[in-house]
Design goal:
heterotrimer; A alpha+beta; B alpha+beta; C alpha+beta; A: Alpha-Beta Plaits; 6-stranded antiparallel β-sheet; 4 helices; 21% helix; C: alpha+beta; two-stranded antiparallel sheet; 2 helices
Chain lengths: 186, 993, 107
C-alpha cells in the first residue's frame, strides 16, 4: 500500500467559492513531436484522447491530455497508474526522440468551485477570463508563482501549481475567496 | 460662521445622522456627508496648519484637489494620517484629528515660523545648509527633523486587508460626470466592453450642481436615468469610489477602488487595486478651479467658488453667512446665485474684468447683486477666519478703496482641465490662450502597442467648459451614432487671465499671496527663484517646493508657472508644466501590496519533510524561496552546540540531511551528451550509464555559475543536479541555449526538482541503516562510490546515488515527493539503533569545508573561475568548446597573478572572521593597504577542534606554510597559515568503505 | 507594462508573465575568435532610441523564448517571431520600414 500523500492532504476552505486541494493526480510531462503518428498513437493509448490543439485540454473520463507548449503535453491519469503510463509511453515512442517523465509528485492540484469561481482567480492571475475559450488551459502565474488552470466544469476551475508552494497557493485562494470580497456582487 | 442649512443638500440623508469626532470633540453629520461637509456643518472651518509656517488652514476645495484638509483618521490598527477630508465619506464613529500643530490646532507654538517667514524664503533648505557649517548639525538638522513630516506614522499593524484584481476592457472611461456618462452610453450601445469609473461615490460631476438641463431633464434626473440605462447593459461595468491612479504603457491602467473606506471593518477588503488592461482610455476627468493670488488668500474662509457651490447644493452647508465673490470669469456667478437661492448674503461680486456683460452677470444684477467691475481684492482681513476684504483696482497697486465685511470669500481664477491621465504616458498639452489653460493636444496623444492613440480626452478634461459641447465631444469621441444628448446651460462671456491681484501689487502684498497653501509657497518665493536664476519649471518646483505637497499642486501649479513665466518675461507655453506622474491622488500602501502580507507575503517553498522539521526544532535558513533547517535545536541547546552535535553524530554514527531542494533536471535525447559537454566544463558524454560525475558550469564570461553531480541514467538521458538556488536558473539556461542557439540539436529537458524528496544518509552507519530498510544491495562490492542504483527501498520506489559531500560513507536517496515524509519517518525509526540524527545546512557546510569542497556562493561570487579554485581536474582539455571556455582564454583569466584557493588556519586556533582580507606590503592609490587574499568560508570544526577556513590568496598554492595577516575589527590582526584546503581525511578512507 | 503575443502559444502575455533576455540575433563567438570579436559578443550591446530586436521568454507560460521587434521610444510593438530566426522575417522588416521610414534597416 502506498503511503503517498498530497502536499496539503486535501485541505479546503469555503468562502464565496469553495477551494480544495484535490489530492494526488497522476501527471506526466511528455515532450516530443506532437505531429508524429507514433505520438498520436501513444497519447491515444495513454488517455483515450487525441493530441490537444494548442492551449487546449481534452478529457476522457479520469484521463486528459493538455497542450503545454509546441513540443510538450501534460498527460493526466489516476495517480497509481503514472509509472506504468510513463513506461508505456516510452515503449510506444521507442526510436523516436521524446521525453516522458513522471511529475505527479511535483505538483499540487486545486479545485475552485462556485458560481463566482472566476472572481477568485481574477485576483491572482493576469488573465482575461471573458476570452478564455472552451477547453482552454491557461498557463500563467497566480500572484508570485507559476500556475495553470482550466474550466473543469461549469462552475469549477482546476488549478495546478508546484508542490512546494501548495501552502502559498492555498493561502492565496483562501484570501481571494473570502465572503464579501466578490468583485461583482449581485 | 459655516453652518448646516435648514433644507436642501442633494447628497445627504437627514434621517440618518452620524456622529464622529474631531480633535476629541463630538460632532454630528449625515449620511452622504464627506468629512469636510460634516465639519463645515459644525462650523469647523479651520482644519489644520500649513507645513512650513504653521499658519491656520481651512478648507479650500470640495474634491481631490483639496490641499489643506488632511487629518489623521481612525485609531489603532485603522489609523492613517493625511486622509483628505473632501474625499473621505463620513461614517458612524469616525475619529479624526488635525495635523501639524503643537500643542493644539488653535494654539500652536510652531506658528512662530510665520514670524520668521522672511528668513525662510523659497529654497531656504539649500541656503541655510551652506553656512555656517556647524549650524547644520546642531541647529538646522534637529529643527528640520522635528518639524518635518506631515501627520503621524501609524504604530499598530494595519487591521485591514487589500487585494488586486485583473481586468480587461475595450474601453475604460474615467470620470462619471456627464461627459463620462455620455461616452459610456455611446460606446455601450456599440456593444464594446466598457468600464466607467468614478472616484467619488456619486455620478454626475459638476453639471448636477450647476443646474444644467439635459434632454429636457434636470441634469440630476438625466444622470439617474442614464446610469439606469447603463446598468442594464451587460457589456458595461460601472464603478463608483474607483479612481484611475495612473496610466502606463500598453493601456495598463491602475484603478484604486475604495471598497470599504465608508464602512470600515465590515470584513471586506479596504481597498482594491484593479490592474486594468484597456484597449482605449477616455479621460472625462473634468477640470479643477484655480484660486486667485491676492494677499491673504490663505486665510480660512477663502475658498474656491465652485467648492462653495458644491457645499451649498450637495450637502446644504454654507461656508459663511456673507460671502464675497471674486472672479475673472462668468462661472463664479453661479455660486453667487446658488448662495442667494439658499437664502445667504452675497455683499458683492468683485470681477477683475473691465466689464462683466454676460448672461450670468446680467442675472446676478437682476437679482439685486452688486457687481464691481475692474476691481480686485487688495487683501483679506482676519487671521483664523476671514472678517472682511479690502477692495482695490485690479489694474493698480493695491490702494484700499473700500472695505467689505464678510466671513467667506469665494474665488475663481478660471479652470484647469485634469490632464494627469492624459499626460502620464506621454500625451502632450497645448496652451489655450483664450481660456488660459493647458489642454490635451489631440494631435499628440500617448500611443499604445499598435502605435495608435491610447487615450482620448473629452469634455472639461479636454478644455471644453460648456455642457452642451461637453456632451457632443464625449459622444463623438466614443464613436456615438446619431446626435449627442443636448444640454441647455447658458452662454458664458470670455474670462480674463489674472495671475496676481492687483496686477501691480508690491512686495508686501506678494509676500502674502499664497500659491501652494499646504507647503507655504507664495508668489514672492517663485519670483525670488526666478531672480536667483531658476528658469526650468522643474528646478523651480524643487527649489521652492511648489506643487510638491500631497496634493501635487492640483490648484497651484498653473498659477505658479504663470508667475514664473511673468518673472522670466516669457510666455506660459515656453515655460511649460512640470511632469504629471502617477498616482493622481495618494493611494494606500496596502493597495500597492495587495494580498501579499503575512503568510502569503511571498511564496515559501516547502519540502515534503518541512512540517517534521518545523515540529522538531528546525532553526530555519532561507535559501531562495525555500526554508532549510540550519540546524535542529534541542531543548535548552544553543545553535552552535546543535551544529557541533549534528556534525559529531554524522561523523561517528549516521546523519540525515533533507536534500530535496537540490535541483534535478532531466536531459534526454540523441544530442544530450553533446549538449552537456557544452554546458559543463568537464566531459559528460563519456560518463558510463550507471555512474555519477561532479561537474561545473560556467557562464559565457567564464565565471563559475553552478555545480552538482551529473548522473547518466541511460544511453540517451542524464540527470543533472544543481544547487538549491540554481534549479530554475540552470533549467532556464539550458532551455535558452537549446531554443535560441542549438535549436537543431535533439535534446529535451524537464525540471524534476520537486518530483523527488531526497535524503542524504551520511556516516559510518549509513549502510547499516539502508540494509535494515532492505530491498536493495548497498554493499561496497555491489554498489561502489559514484554510482547509482534503482529499486525499492523499505517498500518505496527509490533511486540511490552513492555520493558524498561530507567525506563520510554516504548515500543520497530520491523517492517520490508524495512518499518523502513517510520515507523520512521510516529512516528515523529504522535508524534509531544506529544513532540516526538529522543535520542541517550548517553542519553540511562545515563538513564539506573540512573536506575542502567548494561551495557555490561562498568560494564563488561571480568573479571566480574554476581555475582559481584549483579545479583544473574538472575542466576537459579534450573539448574544443564549452560555455565559458573562450572567456577563460583571455589574458587576465589565464594570469598567474589571480588569487587561488588555499586552506587557512589561524595560529591561535580561533575562527577567522568571514570575508577578512589578507594585507600585503604597501598602499594603493587611495592610501589603503594593499591586499593579497581574502577568506571565502570560515568555521569552527568540531571534528578538528579548531577554526578552519578557505580563502583565495595570490600565488596561494605555492606559498604553503606562509603566515598572512588578516586585520579585523578594533585594530586587531589575525595571523593565519596557508595550508592544504583538505583538512580532514585527506586520503578519503572514511567514505571508501 | 508591455503586452507581447507569444508566437509559440498565442497568449497575449503581460510583462509580468515574461522574462527579458536582452538583444536578439547575437552571434556567439567561442574559441578561435579574436579578443575583439569575443568582446563584441560578450559586452557590446545596441541601445537604440527606436527600432530594437529583443529576446523574451514566456516564462510564466509555455516556457518558450521568442523574439520581439519594438520601438524603445514609444513602445510600439511591430511584431514577435520565433527565436529560431537568423534575422527578422521579411514581412516584419517591411512593416517596420513602413512605420519608421527613417529606420536604417536590418544589418
Amino acid at each position: 500500500m502506498s503511503r503517498a500523500v498530497s502536499a496539503l492532504e486535501g485541505a479546503s476552505h469555503k468562502g464565496f467559492v469553495e477551494v480544495a486541494e484535490a489530492g494526488l493526480v497522476g501527471m506526466i510531462t511528455l515532450r516530443g513531436d506532437l505531429s508524429s503518428a507514433k505520438m498520436k498513437a501513444a497519447v491515444k493509448a495513454a488517455t483515450g484522447t487525441a493530441i490537444p490543439a494548442p492551449r487546449r485540454i481534452v478529457t476522457e473520463g479520469d484521463r486528459a491530455a493538455a497542450w503545454m507548449s509546441p513540443d510538450e503535453l501534460l498527460i493526466l491519469v489516476p495517480y497509481a497508474e503514472a509509472p506504468a503510463t510513463v513506461a508505456a509511453l516510452d515503449a510506444a515512442l521507442a526510436g523516436e526522440h521524446h521525453l516522458a517523465a513522471d511529475v505527479s509528485d511535483a505538483r499540487a492540484v486545486f479545485r475552485v468551485r462556485g458560481a463566482k469561481a472566476d472572481e477568485a482567480l481574477m485576483k491572482l492571475c493576469p488573465v482575461d477570463f471573458a476570452t478564455l475559450e472552451a477547453g482552454e488551459i491557461r498557463r500563467t502565474r497566480a500572484a508570485q508563482v507559476a500556475a495553470a488552470f482550466w474550466r473543469s466544469a461549469g462552475d469549477e476551475f482546476t488549478l495546478v501549481s508546484f508542490r512546494s508552494v501548495a501552502g502559498y497557493v492555498m493561502g492565496l485562494l483562501e484570501v481571494s475567496s473570502r465572503t464579501g470580497s466578490e468583485l461583482f456582487p449581485a | 460662521m459655516s453652518t448646516r442649512l435648514p433644507k436642501g443638500g442633494r447628497l445627504i440623508d437627514r434621517t440618518k445622522p452620524l456622529s464622529f469626532s474631531f480633535n476629541g470633540k463630538r460632532m454630528q453629520g449625515f449620511e452622504g456627508d464627506t468629512l469636510a461637509s460634516a465639519l463645515l456643518g459644525q462650523n469647523q472651518m479651520m482644519v489644520g496648519r500649513s507645513f512650513k509656517y504653521h499658519r491656520p488652514r481651512g478648507l479650500i476645495a470640495s474634491g481631490a484637489e483639496e490641499p489643506n484638509g488632511l487629518v489623521g483618521l481612525g485609531q489603532g490598527g485603522r489609523f492613517e494620517p493625511n486622509q483628505r477630508l473632501t474625499t473621505t465619506e463620513l461614517f458612524e464613529g469616525a475619529v479624526t484629528a488635525s495635523q501639524n500643530h503643537w500643542p493644539s490646532l488653535d494654539f500652536d507654538l510652531g506658528a512662530i515660523n510665520d514670524r520668521f517667514a522672511r528668513f525662510l524664503p523659497g529654497g531656504f533648505y539649500y541656503k541655510t545648509f551652506m553656512f555656517p557649517r556647524f549650524a547644520w548639525k546642531h541647529v538646522f538638522e534637529p529643527f528640520i527633523r522635528q518639524s518635518a513630516g506631515l501627520g503621524r506614522v501609524p504604530q499598530a499593524r494595519d487591521e485591514d486587508r487589500y487585494e488586486y484584481a485583473y481586468a480587461f476592457a475595450d474601453l475604460v472611461i474615467v470620470g462619471g460626470g456627464i461627459a463620462g456618462l455620455a461616452a459610456a452610453l455611446a460606446a455601450g450601445r456599440q456593444g464594446k466592453r466598457v468600464w466607467l469609473i468614478e472616484q467619488s461615490a456619486h455620478w454626475g460631476g459638476r453639471a448636477v450642481v450647476d443646474g444644467v438641463q439635459i434632454e429636457g431633464l434636470e441634469a440630476s434626473d438625466w444622470v439617474k436615468e442614464t446610469v439606469e440605462t447603463l446598468e442594464g447593459m451587460e457589456n458595461v461595468t460601472l464603478r463608483t469610489r474607483t479612481m484611475a491612479s495612473g496610466l502606463y504603457d500598453h493601456g495598463y491602467l491602475l484603478m484604486y477602488e475604495r471598497v470599504a473606506d465608508h464602512r470600515p471593518g465590515d470584513g471586506r477588503p479596504r481597498h482594491r487595486l484593479w490592474r486594468m488592461r484597456a484597449g482605449h482610455v477616455i479621460t472625462a476627468t473634468g477640470a479643477i478651479e484655480r484660486p486667485l493670488s491676492f494677499a491673504g488668500n490663505d486665510i480660512p474662509g477663502v475658498m474656491l467658488a465652485g467648492a462653495v457651490r458644491d457645499y451649498v447644493v450637495n450637502w446644504a452647508v454654507s461656508p459663511g453667512d456673507r460671502t464675497v465673490i471674486v472672479t475673472n470669469n462668468d462661472d463664479a456667478y453661479r455660486t453667487a446665485l446658488a448662495l442667494l437661492d439658499a437664502g445667504l448674503v452675497v455683499p458683492a461680486i468683485i470681477d477683475a474684468r473691465p466689464a462683466a456683460t454676460g448672461a450670468l452677470p446680467a442675472e446676478a444684477r437682476a437679482r439685486g447683486l452688486r457687481v464691481i467691475e475692474g476691481y480686485g481684492i487688495g487683501h483679506v482681513k482676519g487671521s483664523k477666519r476671514v472678517t472682511g476684504v479690502s477692495l482695490c483696482v485690479q489694474a493698480g497697486e493695491g490702494a484700499e478703496l473700500e472695505t467689505i465685511a464678510c466671513d467667506a470669500v469665494a474665488m475663481s481664477g478660471g479652470w484647469s482641465p485634469v490632464v494627469h491621465l492624459w499626460s502620464h504616458c506621454g500625451g502632450k498639452l497645448i496652451w489655450d490662450e483664450a481660456q488660459a489653460m493647458f489642454r490635451p493636444d489631440a494631435k499628440r496623444p500617448a500611443t499604445g502597442a499598435d502605435g495608435a492613440a491610447m487615450v482620448t480626452a473629452v469634455g472639461s478634461a479636454n478644455g471644453i467648459l460648456n455642457a452642451h459641447e461637453v456632451l457632443a465631444d464625449a459622444h463623438r469621441a466614443a464613436g456615438g451614432k446619431g446626435t449627442a444628448p443636448g444640454a441647455v446651460c447658458g452662454e458664458e462671456s470670455p474670462m480674463l487671465p489674472v495671475w496676481i491681484m492687483p496686477q501691480g501689487a508690491g512686495p508686501a502684498l506678494r509676500m502674502k499671496m499664497w500659491l501652494d497653501p499646504q507647503n507655504d509657497v507664495k508668489v514672492s518665493d517663485v519670483q525670488l527663484a526666478a531672480r536667483e536664476g531658476y528658469e526650468s519649471v522643474e528646478h523651480t518646483k524643487r527649489y521652492t517646493t511648489l506643487g510638491m505637497a500631497t496634493d501635487q499642486g492640483k490648484i497651484s501649479n498653473i498659477n505658479g508657472l504663470a508667475v514664473l513665466s511673468d518673472a522670466l518675461n516669457r510666455g506660459i507655453p515656453e515655460t511649460g508644466t512640470t511632469t504629471f506622474r502617477p498616482p493622481y491622488t495618494p493611494i494606500s500602501m496596502g493597495a500597492i501590496a495587495g494580498e501579499a502580507r503575512g503568510g502569503i507575503f511571498q511564496p515559501l517553498r516547502k519540502t515534503p519533510m518541512h512540517d517534521w522539521h518545523e515540529t522538531h526544532g528546525a532553526h530555519w535558513e532561507p535559501v531562495g524561496q525555500w526554508r532549510r533547517p540550519y540546524c535542529f535545536l534541542r531543548h535548552g541547546e544553543g545553535i552552535h552546540d546543535a551544529v557541533n552535535r549534528e556534525i559529531r553524530n554524522t561523523r561517528n554514527a549516521v546523519g540525515l540531511l533533507d536534500a530535496s531542494t537540490l535541483g534535478k533536471i532531466l536531459v534526454k535525447g540523441p544530442d544530450a551528451g553533446r549538449f552537456l559537454d557544452m554546458l559543463y566544463t568537464n566531459m559528460m558524454s563519456t560518463l558510463p550509464v550507471g555512474k555519477c560525475r561532479y561537474g561545473l558550469m560556467c557562464n559565457e564570461n567564464g565565471f563559475l555559475s553552478d555545480d552538482g553531480v551529473v548522473v547518466r541514467l541511460s544511453e540517451d538521458s542524464w540527470l543533472c543536479h544543481t544547487t538549491t538556488g540554481g534549479a530554475e536558473r540552470i533549467h532556464g539556461w539550458m532551455e535558452d541555449w537549446l531554443q535560441c542557439e542549438w535549436w537543431d540539436w535533439k535534446v529535451y529537458t524537464a525540471n524534476l526538482t520537486e518530483e523527488y524528496a531526497q535524503v542524504a544518509i551520511a556516516g559510518p552507519n549509513a549502510r547499516k541503516l539502508l540494509e535494515k530498510l532492505g530491498g536493495m544491495d548497498v554493499s561496497k562490492e555491489a554498489f561502489p562510490a559514484m554510482e547509482w542504483r534503482e529499486g525499492t527501498l523499505g517498500g518505496v520506489r527509490a533511486r540511490i546515488y552513492r555520493i558524498s559531500f561530507s567525506g563520510e560513507l554516504s548515500y543520497e536517496v530520491a523517492v517520490p515527493a508524495s512518499e518523502g515524509r513517510a520515507f523520512w519517518d521510516a529512516l528515523l525509526a529504522a535508524g534509531e539503533e544506529f544513532g540516526v540524527m538529522p543535520y542541517g545546512t550548517e553542519a553540511m557546510h562545515i563538513m564539506r569545508a573540512e573536506k575542502g569542497f567548494i561551495m557555490i556562493g561562498d568560494e564563488t561570487d561571480g568573479t571566480v573561475i574554476p581555475q582559481d579554485l584549483n579545479l583544473q581536474w574538472a575542466i576537459s582539455k579534450k573539448k574544443d568548446d564549452y560555455l565559458g571556455k573562450r572567456a577563460q582564454e583571455r589574458s587576465f583569466m589565464a594570469s598567474p597573478e589571480r588569487w587561488k584557493l588555499v586552506g587557512l588556519e589561524s595560529l591561535d586556533g580561533g575562527v577567522i572572521p568571514d570575508g577578512a582580507y589578507a594585507v600585503a606590503e604597501g598602499h594603493n592609490a587611495n592610501g589603503q593597504r594593499n591586499t593579497q587574499g581574502r577568506v571565502t568560508s570560515t568555521y569552527f570544526s568540531p571534528t578538528l577542534g579548531k577554526g578552519i577556513a578557505m580563502g583565495l590568496v595570490k600565488h596561494g598554492p605555492d606559498r604553503m606554510g606562509e603566515v598572512l595577516d588578516f586585520p579585523v575589527d578594533n585594530g586587531k590582526v589575525v595571523k593565519a597559515r596557508i595550508v592544504d584546503p583538505v583538512f580532514y581525511d585527506k586520503e578519503g578512507e572514511k567514505q571508501n568503505v | 507594462m508591455l503586452i507581447l503575443e507569444c508566437p509559440c502559444c498565442g497568449v497575449k502575455a503581460e510583462e509580468t508573465e515574461l522574462t527579458p533576455g536582452g538583444e536578439a540575433h547575437l552571434k556567439r563567438c567561442g574559441p578561435g575568435s579574436t579578443d575583439d570579436e569575443f568582446d563584441g559578443y560578450m559586452f557590446a550591446r545596441a541601445n537604440p532610441r527606436g527600432v530594437h530586436f529583443e529576446r523574451w521568454r514566456h516564462a510564466y507560460g509555455c516556457g518558450k523564448w521568442f523574439l520581439a521587434a519594438r520601438c524603445t521610444a514609444t513602445l510600439e510593438v511591430f511584431g514577435t517571431y520565433p527565436a529560431q530566426s537568423k534575422q527578422p522575417p521579411a514581412e516584419l522588416q517591411a512593416k517596420i520600414k513602413a512605420r519608421r521610414p527613417g529606420w536604417e534597416g536590418w544589418t
